[in-house]
Amino acid sequence: KRVKKNLLNGLEYRDRSASAFAASQPEAMEDLVYKVRPVPSSLHAFMFDFGALRQETELTYIERIISHQFPCLDAEVRYFASVVLSCQEFVRDAEGDPSSASLRDVRRCASMARWFYSS
User: Fold this and answer.
1) Does the predicted TM-score (pTM) go above 0.85?
2) What band does 12 get if pLDDT is binned at 50, 70 and 90?
3) Does residue 100 contact residue 92 with C-beta atoms inside 8 Å?
4) What is the DSSP string of 43-83?
5) Are 62 and 103 in contact (CB under 8 A)?
6) Angstrom distances, CA of residue 81 to CA of 19, 33, 49, 64, 115
7) Is 49 left (phi over 0), alpha (psi -120 to 50) or beta?
8) Are 106 and 100 in contact (CB under 8 A)?
9) CA–CA dist 14, 35 (Å, integer)
């Protein structure tokens, strides 16, 4: 019963590339793949597009995020932030979508850089 509920909610998927038997068996919960469902038309009035940050504003946010991981390295933070901003712009250009790179990616990058720095 739980498997059927998870399938209906998009919490499990079926492997279509495998054999017919494997394709009919739902994957375990640790291999979740979430389905994106369309927004119901009743919610369209509540959808907003706030646009994108200007480059200078995004750089300021990136510097703040990185400085939380490296509080004593001011010059290095500014340089690293400019590199991360360039990477964000590259991804957006390559994907052709302004939303393909976000500040969440910057947080992940800063956390990973902190891990490398401390090891």
Assistant:
1) no
2) very low
3) yes
4) GGGG--------HHHHHHHHHHHHHHH-TT-HHHHHHHHHH
5) yes
6) 48, 32, 26, 9, 17
7) beta
8) no
9) 12
